[in-house]
Amino acid sequence: MQAFSWPIRVYYEDTDAGGVVYYANYLKFFERARTEMLRAAGFEQDQLLAEQGVLFVVRSVQADYLTPARFNEQLLVHCEITEAKKASLTFAQMISRGDAIVCKALVRIACLDAKTMRPKAIPENLQELLQNEH
User: Given 16, 46, 99, 113, which residue is catalytic?
Assistant: First the structure.
């Protein structure tokens, strides 16, 4: 899959008492971009669950907060798959405001069997797409 970007507007509800984006909300922004990246490639997570019995869950996150984002700013969330294994994906993600990097993260996603909640191979059709792009 090619690198992907998704625009995000900062809403009042995203901010804390200091008027900046609350740190945990950056994780929500990253999640939205990963979901939209899969959607743009033709994969809906609810369909993967219903048809193939798989879930994608966050296994780990390493985030660096570099500069604050504030109410009503327009941000761009970038994501790129840097590693694709049999049952996991690693995303390099970044949130920018113009030329400024606001936050960056490495996010590892695990593919799980929805019934057992144990690791399960990423569906073949998604694996094929990943292999063709790398």
Answer: 16
Confidence at 131, pLDDT banded by 50, 70, 90: confident
Q: Is 46 among the residues known to form the active site?
A: no
Q: What are phi and psi of 115, to 5 degrees?
A: -80, -45
Taking the C-alpha atoms of residue 92 and residue 108, their distance in angstroms, rounded to an integer, is 9
Separation CA 85–CA 118 (nearest Å) = 15
Q: Give φ, ψ of 73 to 5 degrees.
A: -75, 150
Average pLDDT over residues 62-80: 97
What is the pLDDT at residue 2? 84
Spatial separation of the C-alpha atoms in residues 24 and 22, rounded to whole Å: 6
The confidence score (pLDDT) of residue 99 equals 96
Angle 22-24-26 from CA coordinates, rounded to 5°: 85
pTM value is 0.92
Cα 113 from Cα 28, distance rounded (Å): 23
- Show the domains of the chain with their CATH numbers: 4-133 (3.10.129.10)
